């Protein structure tokens, strides 16, 4: 049976022939929170004191070892001021994991770094950090907006980390090094996808995307921009493929939108976004995406099948509605027939009563 490229891509990912092994890598086995909460989570676990100004409560256990000094850690977090519970940062919402090189963090990240150094890959925790190891006596009045002497709360999840002796941050890497590191992550993700380890695959794609952050992409042009997009966009598309399998359709649409911002004619992005929209019941919008995808990949059988499937669903819905309305009209017709039958009976009864009255009246006259 002939399987079209896009249909194949909806179930599997592009696989490289060469297997690249990443040394000293630890990856996550869990799932990030999906609620987008605006308030800190309520945690009942034991409070672990890590420092005079830093304590931790575990929300979800992690796996493997903990990062050492100069490890390059990738993490997501939400951050609040402790007393007012004002949320001032959310990397999940921004779909941008944060890189943190332990031992080389910014001053305002000192408390966060202490907390992360105690966490395993996949671990999620609530960190309580005193203002002295946060934004300090003066606070921060740009982005993020943190008032003076504000104690902080961080809901943190460690995506994964690379053990590196020199503690080389992304900003210290050459363009080729960053793209190469991201590409290795992508291939690791593809291998995990083949094993149906979708959550772990997504974590690898997220780490690859972290190497290709907006600050980095804005600086590129020409062949380097093309090289970076050739890694970054497939990671977003592969994330979408995983999310569709996990039935997290809104998130899948978000990753497709990122690709379409860079490549509005990308048929895979249009196809996968259409699949996700169709699953959400957004048939008109899904059909529009499939038609656009068909414009750029006119010979693809998968697109034809999806469009035919939408047409068949709409036809079935039309027939169902038609039968429903027909039933309503038949009911009315039956009611009308019953009314007519009842009216005839009444007329016959009235005629009989009238007839008997006349006959009875005549007999009375004769008797008199």
Automatic annotation (TrEMBL):
PROSITE patterns per UniProt: FKBP_PPIASE, TPR
Lineage: superkingdom: Eukaryota
InterPro entries: AIP/AIPL1/TTC9, PPIase_dom_sf, PPIase_FKBP_dom, TPR-like_helical_dom_sf, TPR_2, TPR_rpt
Extent of the TPR repeats: 267-300
Keyword Repeat: yes
Alphabetically ordered keywords of this record: Isomerase, Repeat, Rotamase, TPR repeat
The keyword Isomerase belongs to this UniProt entry's keyword annotation: yes
Protein's name in the database: peptidylprolyl isomerase
Organism in which the protein naturally occurs: Raphanus sativus (Radish)
Gene designation per UniProt: LOC108805863
